[in-house]
């Protein structure tokens, strides 16, 4: 497994496993504490694992947490997703940058998203399972959602959004969220 820094989002990393494939399929390590530690992250900081299953076109996000934020490791364990990160850390050299990635069950690449960044994804296959590992217990009172189609962000979602939660459909613009955070 190797770690590669994401140049457009300061502090974000891609963890790329080395799969062993043969006629049976493949095997790979999807988390390695030593590799995580090698880029300055604490592997013991992650306290919750979750998984979501989505059908093609489902869009989830853009989500972040208020307060101390939430760092997360995200991996598509089955299928394929279009994954998006928006840097909303005012003191970051990549503030307001948007980065997108294709994550898939074929590659098992894990994306590390620093606290203070918004995250969202869209399922590209009929079924897509997305695994999350977060560094703080989830508190719904800290949930913040930004409109997935905010023109300021201009995220190039590859498919029409066929389904999303009511919270995501009614999300405010980035400008509204930032205004609320400053007050």
UniProtKB/TrEMBL annotation:
EC number, UniProt record: 5.1.3.13
User: Has the keyword Nuclease been applied to this entry?
Assistant: no
Work out whether the entry's keyword set contains Kinase: no
Q: Which GO terms describe its biological process?
A: dTDP-rhamnose biosynthetic process; polysaccharide biosynthetic process
Enzyme active site: 63, 132
Q: Name one GO molecular function term.
A: dTDP-4-dehydrorhamnose 3,5-epimerase activity
Its pathway is: Carbohydrate biosynthesis; dTDP-L-rhamnose biosynthesis
Q: Which domain of life is it from?
A: Bacteria
Q: Enumerate the catalysed reactions.
A: dTDP-4-dehydro-6-deoxy-alpha-D-glucose = dTDP-4-dehydro-beta-L-rhamnose
From the record, give the transmembrane residue ranges: none
One GO CC term, this protein: cytosol
Question: What does the record give as the function of this protein?
Answer: Catalyzes the epimerization of the C3' and C5'positions of dTDP-6-deoxy-D-xylo-4-hexulose, forming dTDP-6-deoxy-L-lyxo-4-hexulose.
Family as reported in the entry's similarity comment: Belongs to the dTDP-4-dehydrorhamnose 3,5-epimerase family.
Protein name, entry field? dTDP-4-dehydrorhamnose 3,5-epimerase
What species is given as this protein's source?
Answer: Streptomyces populi
* Gene this protein is translated from: rfbC
């Amino acid at each position: 497994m190797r770690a590669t820094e994401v140049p457009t989002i300061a502090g974000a990393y891609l963890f790329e496993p080395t799969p062993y494939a043969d006629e049976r399929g493949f095997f790979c390590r999807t988390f390695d504490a030593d590799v995580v530690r090698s880029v300055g992250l604490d592997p013991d900081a992650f306290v919750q694992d979750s998984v979501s299953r989505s059908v093609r076109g489902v869009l989830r996000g853009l989500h972040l947490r208020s307060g101390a934020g939430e760092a997360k490791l995200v991996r598509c364990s089955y299928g394929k997703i279009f994954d998006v990160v928006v840097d909303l850390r005012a003191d970051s050299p990549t503030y307001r940058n948007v980065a997108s990635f294709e994550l898939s069950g074929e590659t098992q690449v894990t994306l590390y998203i620093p606290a203070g960044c918004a995250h969202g994804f869209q399922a590209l296959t009929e079924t897509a399972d997305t695994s999350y590992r977060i560094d703080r217990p989830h508190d719904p009172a800290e949930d913040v959602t930004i409109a997935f189609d905010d023109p300021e962000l201009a995220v190039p979602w590859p498919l029409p959004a066929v389904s999303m939660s009511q919270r995501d459909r009614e999300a405010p613009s980035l400008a509204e969220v930032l205004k609320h955070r400053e007050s």
